[in-house]
Amino acid sequence: MKPVLKLKNEEIGLYLEITDGLLNIIKDLGLKHYPKEFGGVLVGYYSIDKKTVNIIDTLLPVSYKSSKIHFERGSEGLKEQLIELFNAEQPLIYLGEWHIHPDARPLPSGTDVEGITEIAKHKDVNITSPILLIVGLTTTEMELGFYVYFKNKIYKYETY
C-alpha cells in the first residue's frame, strides 16, 4: 500500500487523502518550473458517503501563463482528458486545482480565492466544493496548504 497523507476539516466534517508519490510528482514539477509558479488539475474520486476526497493524479496544462507571482492555467484539451478519465474502467473526476507559490507560504491570495470561487460557480463544472492545493516551495523545502471551497467559504484541511 502506498503511503498516504490524510487531512480533515473538523468544522465541516470533510476529509482528504493524497499519496506521497503524487505529492513528490507535484514537487518535482514545481522545481522544474522554479522560480515561476506552475500548476495543474487534481483528479480522483469521492467516497460513497461524499465525506472523503481521494486525490489520485494530476493533469497538466497544454497552455499556461506563468511568472514568479502569477499562474493561469489554460483549458486547451482539458475537457477531452477529463471525459476520457470519467469514462475509464475506474472513473476519475475533476476535483480542483493546484499550483506552486515559489519562495512563499502556501496561503491563498485574493486571486486564488477568486479563481476557486469562479470554478465552484461555473455552469460547466460539476463540482460545488473544489479543492485548492497551494504548495509553498523553495529549492530545499516544501510546505502544503490544502483548502476546499464549501458553501461560499474557503476552509483549510489539517493533518490528523
TrEMBL record:
| A GO biological-process term | proteolysis
A matching Pfam family? Prok-JAB
**SUPFAM superfamilies for the chain:** JAB1/MPN domain
| UniProt key word Protease | yes
Q: Where is the JAB domain?
A: 26-137
In terms of superkingdom, the source organism counts as: Bacteria
Q: Does the keyword RNA-binding apply?
A: no
Q: Name one GO molecular function term.
A: metallopeptidase activity
Q: Where are the transmembrane segments?
A: none
The UniProt keyword set, sorted, is: Hydrolase, Metal-binding, Metalloprotease, Protease, Zinc
Which protein is depicted?
JAB domain-containing protein
